[in-house]
Amino acid sequence: MRTLTAALRLAALALWLALPLHAASAGTATLSSLAQHVAQHPVVRAEFTQTRQMAALKRPVVTTGRIVYSRERGVLWQIEKPYAMTYVLQDDKVVEIGADGQRRERQVQGLAEIGRVFRAVLSADTQALAGYFDIAVQGTTAQWTLELKPRQPQMAQVMERIQITGDQFVQTLRMDEAGGDSTSLRFRGTQGADTLSDAELQRFNGVPRTP
């Protein structure tokens, strides 16, 4: 469950950060210049590779899959390898969908707080975002690094910092956890869209897929 919670925190932040950041100039990057296009697309899709380093394990745990953000419905976090599993993040609940299509609702501690952060980043509410993190931006809009350090004790118990690098799109995202573990995400194939596919709608709505 702790792994799931960490992944969902990353998913919430990553979907904002995976949106296209149109670098029309190579001027100094600022939070406002990076956030100005966050509301451009109602739907965003990306492929990801997640690498989780845990002190208790000698080898990292690597998962790959796809992530889908819908402004109206929430987030689909679809793991494809080494196993098939989908998580649907909506408001105050998480639904787990197994390879057999069975849906199981899970209660995740701190999910309401995740939702508040999620809404702040997705709406480019920099004032609200600054209430959760100390924010530092380096580089230019052509190649930049963004570092977030939690200000609130509840978040600081879980994460130490989040570092993001990118150019027109986010390239990498790394979260260092308070306990010494770390989770990294590498994105590729990020695309914006106006609507969800039928299959995505079915997963959000809980309708079994037609064979």
From TrEMBL:
Record carries keyword Signal: yes
The keyword Lyase is annotated on this UniProt entry: no
Database matches in SUPFAM superfamilies: Prokaryotic lipoproteins and lipoprotein localization factors
Signal peptide range: 1-23
Keywords: Lipoprotein, Signal
Pfam families associated with the record: LolA_3
Protein name: Outer membrane lipoprotein carrier protein LolA
Organism encoding this protein: Paracidovorax avenae (strain ATCC 19860 / DSM 7227 / CCUG 15838 / JCM 20985 / LMG 2117 / NCPPB 1011)
